[in-house]
Amino acid sequence: MLTMKDIIREGNPTLRAVCDEVPVPLTAEDIQLGKDMLEFLHNSQDPEMAEKYELRGGVGLAAPQLDIKKRIIALLVPSNNPEKPEPILETVMYNPKIVSHSVQDACLADGEGCLSVDREVPGYVVRHARVTVAYTDMNGETQKIRLKNYPAIVVQHEIDHLNGVMFYDHINAKNPFSLDKDVLVLE
Ligand code: CO
Known about the structure:
single chain; alpha+beta; 5-stranded antiparallel beta sheet
């Protein structure tokens, strides 16, 4: 199983690389990698496993964070509704691509964090409020999904990793908490 030891941290040049497309049909190795990445996220959100293996909680992971320059991301966005405990988003995406997005922008009120960044970086990370993402799923099938608000922010953070972009690249260095008036601030 993957642990924090497998995750590279900022300063490693792989985090600044543009990753390679994954060949389709998927190889058994790439399918297994996607499964391992999703399993890491499950473990990181499980209080017992997280404590036992000292995992930081994560909702997304990109292959370059494992020092693998492939366009693969895993997403596990938990429910915030106890009546509906199933995750809002649980998937592995191969070669994800934003095919359209809203004009409206959004950011998280509390900023963003990253498993590859061992420090707080305060500031608004402004992204698209809604995105449509095309990707290949673990079965090798082409999918298209429309996401809004928090899951849309998470998928954009992870796709950025495939292009060597870190979340703090989007923070206004001079004025980290300045915002245009029409940006949606997600609590
Ligand atoms: Co990250």
